[in-house]
Amino acid sequence: MAQMTYRDAVRRALIEEMERDERVFIMGEEVGVWGGTFAVTRGMYDMFGEKRVRDTPISELVIAGAAVGAAMNGLRPVAEIMTFNFALLSLDAMINHAAKVRYMFGGQFECPMVLRTTSGWGQLSATHSQTFENYVAHVPGLKVIMPGTPADAYGLLKAAIRDPDPVIFIEHTHLYRVRGEVPDEEFLLPIGQSNIKREGRDVTIVAYSRMLHEALKAADELAKEGIECEVVDIPTLRPLDLRPVVQSFKKTYRAVLATEQWLGYGVDAEIAAQIYEHAFDYLDAPIKRVTAPPVPLPYNKHLELAAMPDKEDIKRAVLEVLR
Amino acid sequence: MPRKTKKPAAIVPASLDEARLLEMYRQMVLIRRIEEEAAEAYQRGLIGGFLHLYIGEEATAVGSINALRDDDNVVVHYRDHGHALARGCTAREVMAELMGKATGLSKGKGGSMHMAKRDCRLWGGYAIVAAQLSLAAGIALADQYVGEDRVTICYFGDGATNNGYFHESLNLSAVWKLPVIWVCENNNYGMGTRVDRASAVTEMYRKACAYDIPTEQVDGQNVLDVFEATQRAAEHVRSGNGPYFIEARTYRYRGHSMGDPERYRSKEEVEEWLKNDPIRRFASILHTLGIDQERLDAIHAEVEEEVQDAVRFAEESPEPPLEALYEDVYANPPAGDPFIL
Asked: Chain A within 8 Å of B171 (Cβ-Cβ)?
C-alpha cells in the first residue's frame, strides 16, 4: 500500500479513468498547458493531448452547460471549475439543467458528468474563500461528494466518473498535500456511504472534508483526557447516508457537527434535524454545531484564523456537550 | 471571415421536389392549427402553466428543420411546439404533453416548455433563456469528439442574445469550431420589451460578427429563404468549418404567453405583419408552381382531422400515476430508505 497525497490520488483517478474510457475528457480553465491551477492535471495535457484535456475560456456558464450537453450526447465530461466561488456562475447549468434533464423529459436523457471544484481559503479575502456545498446538496437530481482522505478522493472520483448521474465533486485546497494510504490495486468506493473513521463511546463528531481532519485531531487530544469521540465522516452529502450517524448517536447520546460553512442553513443544520427525527429519545444534550461565523472572510490572517473553525473549536464543543 | 449575405427571394431550391414542398406546407398548417387548439384548450383549463404560441413564426422552424438530416440534433427554447412538430413528433404526443398526460412526449413532466424526443434527436425545449446554447455547444462537442458529421441546430430568440450564455457559447463554438448552426428567431420582442429597448444592436447577426462566425440574415416569414440559408449553413458546418449563424426576422402574432395584455405594441403593427403571413405566402409560391388551391385545401382538411384526433387522444389519455412523482430523479433511486436523504 502506497502513501499518496490527496492531489496525486485525484490525479491517479483521472488518469486511470481516461485510460479506461475514451469518452472521459477534462475541460476547464488552465487544466491543460498550465497543468491545473492546483497542479492536479499536471502532465495530463502531454499524456492525452488537447482533445481530451481541453483548456477553456474563462466562461463558467458554458463550461458547465457544455458538459451537460456533452454528457447527454454520450460523453463522460469532467469539467473543472477552479473554485466554488466561480462555480456560482455554473449553478444554473447544474441546478436547472444537469439535475433536471432526466426528470423533466420523462427519463429520455441522462447526464453522466462530473463537475470538479474546490473549497478552501488562505488570505484570499471574501470572494475566494467560500464553501457552498449546501447549495447543491439541497438539489434532488445532483450527487455531491466532498472527500476528506486520499483514498476516498481516489475511489469516489472514479465512481463519480462512472456514475450515470451528475456529480459535483468538491476537493479542499488545504488537503492537496495531505498524505494517506491508497491501495495499489484499483478500487471504487460507493457513492452515498458514510463511514466511522474512529470509534468512541462518549460523543459523536460528524465532519467531512478538512473538518474531518480537525475532528480526528481533536479526538486524539481528547482521548488523552479520557474522552472517547466517535468520528463519522460523510464524504457524500447527497445522497446522504444517515445510518452510521444515527447508529453512533444512539450509542453516545451526544453529537458535535463540524463544518466550514457559515452558521445558518448549512449541512450541519440538516444533520441535526435528521438526528432529532431519527433519535430524539436518545438525546442527552443539545446538539452542538462548529461552523464559521456568518461574516465574509477577511484578508487579515489573524482575523481569518479566528473565523475558520479548527480542532480547538471542536474540543470546546465536545466538552460542552459532555458538561 | 465574417460575412453577411442577403439573398434575393427564392426560386425554389432544386433539392425540394413537390412532395417535399407539400409536406412543408402541411407542417406549417399543422403547427398553426395545433397552436390554435392549444389556446382553446388553455381557455378550457385543460392546459396549465405558461403557454407560448409559435403562431406567425412557423416558416422558421419548418424551413430550417427540413434542411437538416434526420440524425442531426435539434435544441430549442421554450416556444417549442412548432419545432417538435416539424421534427416529426406526432400531434398526439405534443398535445398530450401540453395537457400533462402520461402519453405525452415527456410523460407529462415537462409540459409546454419541455418537448423532447430522443428518437428524433430533439434534445428538448429549455426555459431558462439562453441556457440551451451552452447545452447545444456540448451536444455538438460530443459529435465532433467522436467524429460524427452531425450538425446541431440551436434556436433562441432576440432576447437571449443579451445574456451571458449567448456570448460564452458563441465564443466557445468559434474557438473550438463546433458543428453548430445558431438560429436567432428575431421576433422583435423579448416578452414585452421591444428589441431596440433591450439590445444595443437590433440586427442580431452583428453579434455573430463579433466572434468571426459566418452569418446571414433571412426573411423568417419565407420558408424557402429559411430553408436555403439552413442548407448553406449545414454544408458549411458539416464540412468542419465551425459554427454558422442565421438571423431569421420573424414575428409572433399572439402574445408572449397566454394572458399577455399586449400593451407594448399596436394593433397596426400586428396587422402589418399579418399581411406577411408565412403560410399564405408559401401558398402563393406553391400556386405559382402550378399547385392549385384544391390540393392545399385537401391538406388543410387532413390536418384538421389530425388535430381533432390529437385533442381527443390527449383528453382521453391517463394522468401519470402518482408513483411517477419519484421516478427519473436518479438512474438508481435509493428506494424509500428512510436513512438515505
From this structure: yes
Using N-to-C axis directions, what is the helix angle for B293-316 and B91-98, rounded to 10°?
A: 40
| Interchain contact, B340 vs A69, CB within 8 Å | no
Q: Any idea which fold B4-317 has?
A: Rossmann fold (3.40.50)
Q: What is the ipTM of this complex?
A: 0.96
Residues A177 and A201 placed together within one structural domain of the fold:
no
In a domain, A292, yes or no: yes
Residue of A nearest to B143 (CA): A73
Clarify whether A128 is annotated catalytic: yes
Task: Report if residue A270 sits inside a domain.
Answer: yes
Closest alpha carbon within chain A to B150? A73
Residue B154, φ and ψ in degrees, nearest 5? -130, 125
Cα A284-A285-A286 angle, rounded to 5 deg: 140
| pLDDT of the residue at B8 | 47
User: A171 an active-site residue?
Assistant: no
- State in Å, rounded, how far the first CA of chain B is from the last one: 53
Domain total of chain A: 2
Q: Is A160 in the same domain as A36?
A: yes
Domain around A154: 2-182
The two beta strands, B122-125 and B180-186, are: unpaired
In chain B, residues with a C-beta closer than 8 Å to the C-beta of A65 are 131, 133-135, 137-138, 165, 169
Residue ranges, chain B, pLDDT below 70: 1-10, 334-335
Structural domain contains residue A310: yes
One domain, residues A214 and A77: no
Residue pair B121/B74 in contact by the 8 Å Cβ criterion: yes
Q: What is the pLDDT of residues A97-107, one digit of tens each?
A: 999 999 999 99
Does A176 lie in the same domain as A86? yes
Nearest-CA neighbor of A56 among A46, A44, A48, A64? Answer: A64
